[in-house]
Amino acid sequence: MALPRLRTVVLVSGAALLTRRALKRRIARSPLWPLPALPEPVSGHSQRRATAVRRLLITERSEVAEGVVRLRLEGAGLPRWEPGAHLDLVLPSGLVRQYSLCGDPEDTGAYTVATRLVADGRGGSREVHDQLREGLEIEVRGPRNRFPLTEAPAYVFVVGGIGITPVLPMLRSLAASGADWRLLYGGRSRASMPFLEEIEKLGADGDRVTVVVQDETGHPDVAGALAELAPGTAVYCCGPEPLTDAVAAALPAGRPLHLERFSAAAGDAAGPGSGPFEVELRRSGRTVPVAAGQSVLAAVRTAAPHVAYSCEQGFCGTCQQRVLEGEIDHRDDLLTDDERGDSMLICVSRCRGGRLVLDL
What's the pLDDT at 73? Predict the structure, then answer.
Protein backbone atom coordinates (compact mmCIF):
# COMPACT_ATOMS: atom_id res chain seq x y z
CA MET A 1 0.00 0.00 0.00
CA ALA A 2 2.87 2.37 0.71
CA LEU A 3 4.29 2.17 -2.84
CA PRO A 4 1.07 3.25 -4.66
CA ARG A 5 0.65 6.16 -2.20
CA LEU A 6 4.25 7.27 -2.81
CA ARG A 7 3.71 7.07 -6.57
CA THR A 8 0.56 9.22 -6.25
CA VAL A 9 2.37 11.85 -4.16
CA VAL A 10 5.22 12.01 -6.68
CA LEU A 11 2.82 12.39 -9.63
CA VAL A 12 0.77 15.12 -7.93
CA SER A 13 3.90 17.01 -6.85
CA GLY A 14 5.35 16.78 -10.35
CA ALA A 15 2.15 18.06 -11.92
CA ALA A 16 2.01 20.99 -9.49
CA LEU A 17 5.63 21.91 -10.26
CA LEU A 18 4.97 21.86 -14.02
CA THR A 19 1.86 24.00 -13.55
CA ARG A 20 3.76 26.60 -11.50
CA ARG A 21 6.51 26.79 -14.12
CA ALA A 22 3.97 27.21 -16.92
CA LEU A 23 2.17 29.93 -14.99
CA LYS A 24 5.41 31.82 -14.35
CA ARG A 25 6.22 31.72 -18.08
CA ARG A 26 2.73 33.02 -18.92
CA ILE A 27 2.95 35.85 -16.40
CA ALA A 28 6.42 36.77 -17.69
CA ARG A 29 4.90 37.24 -21.14
CA SER A 30 2.07 39.41 -19.76
CA PRO A 31 2.28 40.80 -16.18
CA LEU A 32 -1.46 41.53 -16.32
CA TRP A 33 -2.38 37.95 -17.30
CA PRO A 34 -5.05 36.75 -18.07
CA LEU A 35 -5.43 40.05 -19.98
CA PRO A 36 -3.66 40.13 -23.37
CA ALA A 37 0.04 40.93 -23.45
CA LEU A 38 0.73 44.45 -24.77
CA PRO A 39 3.88 46.56 -25.11
CA GLU A 40 5.19 48.08 -21.87
CA PRO A 41 2.60 50.72 -20.92
CA VAL A 42 3.12 54.32 -19.89
CA SER A 43 0.03 53.95 -17.74
CA GLY A 44 1.08 53.18 -14.21
CA HIS A 45 4.77 52.99 -15.07
CA SER A 46 5.81 56.56 -15.78
CA GLN A 47 8.33 58.44 -13.68
CA ARG A 48 5.46 60.43 -12.19
CA ARG A 49 3.80 57.34 -10.75
CA ALA A 50 7.08 55.86 -9.60
CA THR A 51 7.83 58.64 -7.14
CA ALA A 52 7.89 57.41 -3.57
CA VAL A 53 5.14 58.09 -1.05
CA ARG A 54 6.40 59.39 2.29
CA ARG A 55 4.95 60.67 5.53
CA LEU A 56 6.63 63.87 6.70
CA LEU A 57 6.26 65.84 9.90
CA ILE A 58 5.22 69.49 9.80
CA THR A 59 7.81 71.12 12.07
CA GLU A 60 7.27 74.76 11.20
CA ARG A 61 4.36 76.87 9.99
CA SER A 62 4.72 80.58 9.30
CA GLU A 63 2.91 83.33 7.42
CA VAL A 64 5.30 84.82 4.88
CA ALA A 65 2.77 87.27 3.39
CA GLU A 66 -0.89 88.11 3.76
CA GLY A 67 -2.77 84.90 3.08
CA VAL A 68 0.41 82.89 2.36
CA VAL A 69 1.48 80.06 4.67
CA ARG A 70 4.89 78.38 4.52
CA LEU A 71 5.30 74.81 5.80
CA ARG A 72 8.52 72.97 6.63
CA LEU A 73 8.08 69.20 6.24
CA GLU A 74 10.82 67.11 7.83
CA GLY A 75 11.90 63.54 7.17
CA ALA A 76 15.09 61.48 6.91
CA GLY A 77 17.11 60.98 3.74
CA LEU A 78 14.88 62.95 1.39
CA PRO A 79 15.86 63.03 -2.29
CA ARG A 80 17.52 66.17 -3.57
CA TRP A 81 15.55 68.16 -6.14
CA GLU A 82 16.20 70.78 -8.79
CA PRO A 83 14.79 74.33 -8.81
CA GLY A 84 11.30 74.38 -10.31
CA ALA A 85 10.22 71.06 -8.76
CA HIS A 86 6.97 70.57 -6.91
CA LEU A 87 5.61 68.23 -4.26
CA ASP A 88 2.23 66.49 -4.10
CA LEU A 89 0.54 66.93 -0.71
CA VAL A 90 -2.13 64.40 0.21
CA LEU A 91 -4.38 66.47 2.44
CA PRO A 92 -6.36 65.02 5.38
CA SER A 93 -9.54 64.93 3.29
CA GLY A 94 -7.79 62.89 0.57
CA LEU A 95 -7.43 65.82 -1.83
CA VAL A 96 -4.08 65.90 -3.62
CA ARG A 97 -2.58 69.28 -4.44
CA GLN A 98 0.74 70.34 -5.96
CA TYR A 99 2.92 73.01 -4.36
CA SER A 100 6.28 74.27 -5.60
CA LEU A 101 9.33 73.59 -3.46
CA CYS A 102 10.85 76.86 -2.30
CA GLY A 103 13.52 75.73 0.17
CA ASP A 104 17.08 74.47 -0.28
CA PRO A 105 17.49 71.62 -2.82
CA GLU A 106 20.51 70.35 -0.88
CA ASP A 107 18.56 69.98 2.38
CA THR A 108 17.89 66.25 2.57
CA GLY A 109 16.12 66.60 5.91
CA ALA A 110 13.18 68.78 4.91
CA TYR A 111 11.01 70.12 2.12
CA THR A 112 9.52 73.62 2.19
CA VAL A 113 6.34 74.70 0.40
CA ALA A 114 4.16 77.79 0.50
CA THR A 115 0.53 78.23 -0.49
CA ARG A 116 -1.79 81.19 -0.84
CA LEU A 117 -5.35 80.94 0.42
CA VAL A 118 -7.77 81.04 -2.51
CA ALA A 119 -11.15 81.79 -0.99
CA ASP A 120 -13.14 80.79 -4.08
CA GLY A 121 -10.85 77.90 -5.10
CA ARG A 122 -11.47 74.15 -5.10
CA GLY A 123 -10.80 73.68 -1.39
CA GLY A 124 -7.15 72.60 -1.29
CA SER A 125 -5.64 75.87 -0.11
CA ARG A 126 -8.42 76.30 2.45
CA GLU A 127 -7.62 72.89 3.90
CA VAL A 128 -3.90 73.69 4.07
CA HIS A 129 -4.56 76.95 5.91
CA ASP A 130 -7.23 75.60 8.25
CA GLN A 131 -5.97 72.11 9.08
CA LEU A 132 -2.21 71.76 8.60
CA ARG A 133 -0.42 72.56 11.85
CA GLU A 134 2.96 71.90 13.45
CA GLY A 135 3.19 68.37 14.79
CA LEU A 136 0.90 66.86 12.13
CA GLU A 137 2.19 64.16 9.78
CA ILE A 138 1.21 64.43 6.13
CA GLU A 139 1.66 62.12 3.17
CA VAL A 140 3.64 63.53 0.23
CA ARG A 141 4.58 62.27 -3.21
CA GLY A 142 7.50 63.41 -5.30
CA PRO A 143 9.30 65.64 -5.84
CA ARG A 144 8.78 66.01 -9.59
CA ASN A 145 9.89 68.73 -11.98
CA ARG A 146 8.01 70.01 -15.03
CA PHE A 147 9.51 73.53 -14.81
CA PRO A 148 13.27 72.98 -14.83
CA LEU A 149 15.93 75.67 -15.01
CA THR A 150 17.74 75.22 -18.31
CA GLU A 151 21.23 76.38 -19.21
CA ALA A 152 21.26 79.77 -20.97
CA PRO A 153 23.56 82.79 -21.33
CA ALA A 154 20.97 85.01 -19.62
CA TYR A 155 17.57 84.79 -17.92
CA VAL A 156 14.47 86.96 -17.58
CA PHE A 157 11.75 86.05 -15.08
CA VAL A 158 8.26 87.53 -15.02
CA VAL A 159 6.38 86.52 -11.88
CA GLY A 160 3.09 87.36 -10.22
CA GLY A 161 2.36 86.87 -6.52
CA ILE A 162 2.65 83.29 -5.27
CA GLY A 163 4.27 82.42 -8.61
CA ILE A 164 7.54 83.39 -6.96
CA THR A 165 7.71 80.02 -5.14
CA PRO A 166 9.19 77.88 -7.96
CA VAL A 167 11.34 80.78 -9.17
CA LEU A 168 12.94 81.61 -5.81
CA PRO A 169 15.28 78.56 -5.77
CA MET A 170 16.22 79.38 -9.37
CA LEU A 171 17.22 82.91 -8.41
CA ARG A 172 19.27 81.70 -5.45
CA SER A 173 21.11 79.27 -7.72
CA LEU A 174 21.75 81.86 -10.44
CA ALA A 175 22.87 84.49 -7.94
CA ALA A 176 25.33 82.03 -6.39
CA SER A 177 26.76 81.14 -9.80
CA GLY A 178 27.14 84.73 -10.98
CA ALA A 179 24.76 84.23 -13.92
CA ASP A 180 23.10 87.09 -15.81
CA TRP A 181 19.46 87.33 -14.71
CA ARG A 182 16.63 89.83 -14.25
CA LEU A 183 13.27 89.59 -12.49
CA LEU A 184 10.00 91.49 -12.89
CA TYR A 185 7.96 90.72 -9.75
CA GLY A 186 4.39 92.00 -9.48
CA GLY A 187 1.73 91.80 -6.80
CA ARG A 188 -1.42 93.46 -5.47
CA SER A 189 0.35 94.97 -2.46
CA ARG A 190 3.71 94.65 -0.76
CA ALA A 191 2.13 92.85 2.17
CA SER A 192 0.70 90.20 -0.18
CA MET A 193 4.01 89.44 -1.95
CA PRO A 194 5.82 86.44 -0.40
CA PHE A 195 9.60 86.45 0.02
CA LEU A 196 9.80 90.07 -1.13
CA GLU A 197 12.59 91.03 1.27
CA GLU A 198 14.79 88.12 0.19
CA ILE A 199 14.10 88.83 -3.48
CA GLU A 200 15.15 92.46 -3.15
CA LYS A 201 18.37 91.44 -1.37
CA LEU A 202 19.20 88.94 -4.14
CA GLY A 203 18.82 91.68 -6.72
CA ALA A 204 20.48 94.47 -4.81
CA ASP A 205 23.68 94.09 -6.85
CA GLY A 206 23.11 95.43 -10.35
CA ASP A 207 19.43 96.43 -10.17
CA ARG A 208 18.38 92.99 -11.31
CA VAL A 209 14.95 93.08 -9.63
CA THR A 210 12.01 95.29 -10.59
CA VAL A 211 9.13 95.17 -8.10
CA VAL A 212 5.78 96.49 -9.31
CA VAL A 213 3.07 96.89 -6.67
CA GLN A 214 -0.37 97.27 -8.15
CA ASP A 215 -1.84 99.48 -5.43
CA GLU A 216 1.14 101.84 -5.80
CA THR A 217 2.06 101.97 -9.49
CA GLY A 218 -0.42 99.82 -11.41
CA HIS A 219 0.33 96.80 -13.55
CA PRO A 220 3.86 95.78 -14.63
CA ASP A 221 5.22 96.75 -18.05
CA VAL A 222 5.62 93.23 -19.44
CA ALA A 223 6.42 94.37 -22.97
CA GLY A 224 9.16 96.67 -21.69
CA ALA A 225 10.70 93.91 -19.59
CA LEU A 226 10.91 91.66 -22.64
CA ALA A 227 12.12 94.27 -25.12
CA GLU A 228 15.52 93.84 -26.75
CA LEU A 229 16.23 90.41 -25.35
CA ALA A 230 19.75 89.20 -26.03
CA PRO A 231 20.00 86.09 -28.22
CA GLY A 232 19.57 82.89 -26.23
CA THR A 233 17.97 84.55 -23.20
CA ALA A 234 15.67 82.10 -21.39
CA VAL A 235 12.31 83.61 -20.46
CA TYR A 236 10.41 82.17 -17.47
CA CYS A 237 6.94 83.08 -16.30
CA CYS A 238 4.76 81.91 -13.42
CA GLY A 239 1.57 83.63 -12.38
CA PRO A 240 -2.13 84.12 -13.09
CA GLU A 241 -3.48 83.68 -16.59
CA PRO A 242 -3.62 87.42 -17.54
CA LEU A 243 0.10 87.68 -16.76
CA THR A 244 1.10 84.53 -18.64
CA ASP A 245 -1.00 85.63 -21.62
CA ALA A 246 0.68 89.06 -21.62
CA VAL A 247 4.14 87.49 -21.55
CA ALA A 248 3.29 85.10 -24.40
CA ALA A 249 1.93 87.99 -26.47
CA ALA A 250 5.00 90.18 -25.83
CA LEU A 251 7.59 87.61 -26.86
CA PRO A 252 8.91 87.75 -30.43
CA ALA A 253 7.72 84.97 -32.70
CA GLY A 254 9.68 81.78 -32.24
CA ARG A 255 11.05 82.74 -28.83
CA PRO A 256 10.44 79.83 -26.40
CA LEU A 257 8.66 80.50 -23.11
CA HIS A 258 9.19 78.46 -19.96
CA LEU A 259 5.80 78.61 -18.34
CA GLU A 260 4.08 77.38 -15.20
CA ARG A 261 0.44 78.29 -14.66
CA PHE A 262 -1.67 78.48 -11.53
CA SER A 263 -4.40 76.63 -13.42
CA ALA A 264 -5.08 75.16 -16.82
CA ALA A 265 -5.35 77.46 -19.82
CA ALA A 266 -8.91 78.26 -20.84
CA GLY A 267 -10.04 76.10 -23.72
CA ASP A 268 -12.75 76.37 -26.35
CA ALA A 269 -15.60 74.19 -25.12
CA ALA A 270 -17.35 74.46 -28.48
CA GLY A 271 -14.28 73.78 -30.60
CA PRO A 272 -13.34 70.67 -32.59
CA GLY A 273 -13.33 67.49 -30.57
CA SER A 274 -15.86 68.76 -28.03
CA GLY A 275 -18.62 66.32 -28.98
CA PRO A 276 -19.30 62.81 -27.61
CA PHE A 277 -17.05 59.86 -28.43
CA GLU A 278 -16.08 56.51 -26.97
CA VAL A 279 -12.95 55.23 -25.27
CA GLU A 280 -11.80 51.63 -25.38
CA LEU A 281 -9.75 50.42 -22.43
CA ARG A 282 -7.68 47.83 -24.26
CA ARG A 283 -6.23 45.98 -21.28
CA SER A 284 -9.50 45.64 -19.39
CA GLY A 285 -11.61 44.92 -22.45
CA ARG A 286 -14.14 47.67 -21.67
CA THR A 287 -15.49 50.49 -23.83
CA VAL A 288 -17.01 53.57 -22.18
CA PRO A 289 -18.93 56.48 -23.73
CA VAL A 290 -17.70 60.04 -23.13
CA ALA A 291 -20.48 62.62 -23.23
CA ALA A 292 -20.03 66.10 -24.72
CA GLY A 293 -19.81 67.72 -21.30
CA GLN A 294 -17.82 64.94 -19.64
CA SER A 295 -14.06 64.49 -19.25
CA VAL A 296 -12.34 61.32 -20.39
CA LEU A 297 -11.16 60.90 -16.80
CA ALA A 298 -14.71 60.92 -15.43
CA ALA A 299 -15.86 58.41 -18.02
CA VAL A 300 -12.86 56.12 -17.56
CA ARG A 301 -13.23 56.07 -13.78
CA THR A 302 -16.70 54.52 -14.11
CA ALA A 303 -14.95 51.40 -15.43
CA ALA A 304 -11.50 51.81 -13.82
CA PRO A 305 -11.90 53.70 -10.51
CA HIS A 306 -8.24 53.03 -9.62
CA VAL A 307 -6.93 55.44 -12.28
CA ALA A 308 -4.76 58.10 -10.63
CA TYR A 309 -5.56 61.80 -10.97
CA SER A 310 -5.10 65.01 -9.03
CA CYS A 311 -5.57 68.54 -10.39
CA GLU A 312 -8.30 67.73 -13.00
CA GLN A 313 -7.16 70.84 -14.87
CA GLY A 314 -4.35 69.53 -17.03
CA PHE A 315 -1.29 70.92 -15.33
CA CYS A 316 -0.04 68.30 -12.86
CA GLY A 317 0.42 65.31 -15.19
CA THR A 318 -0.85 62.66 -12.77
CA CYS A 319 -3.51 61.31 -15.15
CA GLN A 320 -1.25 60.89 -18.21
CA GLN A 321 -2.21 57.77 -20.16
CA ARG A 322 -0.81 56.08 -23.23
CA VAL A 323 -2.99 56.26 -26.37
CA LEU A 324 -2.88 53.24 -28.69
CA GLU A 325 -5.31 54.47 -31.36
CA GLY A 326 -7.24 57.61 -32.21
CA GLU A 327 -6.58 61.31 -32.84
CA ILE A 328 -5.95 63.28 -29.65
CA ASP A 329 -7.25 66.81 -29.06
CA HIS A 330 -4.59 68.03 -26.61
CA ARG A 331 -5.87 70.71 -24.25
CA ASP A 332 -2.96 71.00 -21.82
CA ASP A 333 0.23 73.04 -21.71
CA LEU A 334 2.23 70.38 -19.91
CA LEU A 335 3.20 67.53 -22.23
CA THR A 336 6.21 67.76 -24.49
CA ASP A 337 5.91 67.27 -28.24
CA ASP A 338 7.31 63.75 -27.89
CA GLU A 339 4.80 62.87 -25.17
CA ARG A 340 1.92 64.23 -27.22
CA GLY A 341 2.67 61.70 -29.94
CA ASP A 342 1.29 58.76 -27.97
CA SER A 343 -0.14 59.98 -24.68
CA MET A 344 -2.65 62.44 -23.24
CA LEU A 345 -3.85 63.98 -20.00
CA ILE A 346 -7.29 62.45 -19.73
CA CYS A 347 -8.62 65.07 -17.31
CA VAL A 348 -8.75 67.78 -20.02
CA SER A 349 -7.78 66.43 -23.43
CA ARG A 350 -10.30 64.81 -25.75
CA CYS A 351 -10.71 63.01 -29.09
CA ARG A 352 -10.93 64.64 -32.52
CA GLY A 353 -12.71 61.63 -33.95
CA GLY A 354 -15.23 59.16 -32.62
CA ARG A 355 -12.94 56.80 -30.75
CA LEU A 356 -9.81 56.56 -28.63
CA VAL A 357 -8.04 53.43 -27.42
CA LEU A 358 -6.13 53.74 -24.14
CA ASP A 359 -3.54 51.38 -22.70
CA LEU A 360 -5.65 50.69 -19.63
Answer: 98
Side-chain-side CA neighbours of residue 313 (13 Å): 13
Q: Are 351 and 276 in contact (CB under 8 A)?
A: no
E strand or H helix that includes residue 112? strand 110-116
303: amino acid identity, one letter: A
Helix (H) or strand (E) segment spanning residue 137: strand 137-144
CA pair distance 182, 171, nearest whole angstrom: 9
Is it the case that residue 18 has pLDDT exceeding 60?
no
Q: Which amino acid, 244?
A: T
C-alpha to C-alpha distance for 238 and 202, rounded to whole angstroms: 19
pLDDT at 228: 87
Handedness of CA 307, 312, 314, 316 (dihedral sign): negative
Is pLDDT above 90 for 72?
yes
Q: Tell me how far apart the alpha carbons of residues 29 and 31 are, in angstroms, rounded to a whole number.
A: 7
Find out whether 349 and 358 touch, Cβ atoms under 8 Å: no
Residue 344, classed as helix, strand or coil, is strand
Tens digit of each residue's pLDDT (9 = 90 or more) over 258-297: 998 766 555 555 555 678 999 999 999 999 999 988 999 9
For residue 234, the number of C-alpha atoms closer than 13 Å in the C-beta half-sphere is: 17
- Judged by DSSP in three states, 290 sits in strand
Residues 160, 239: contact at Cβ < 8 Å?
yes
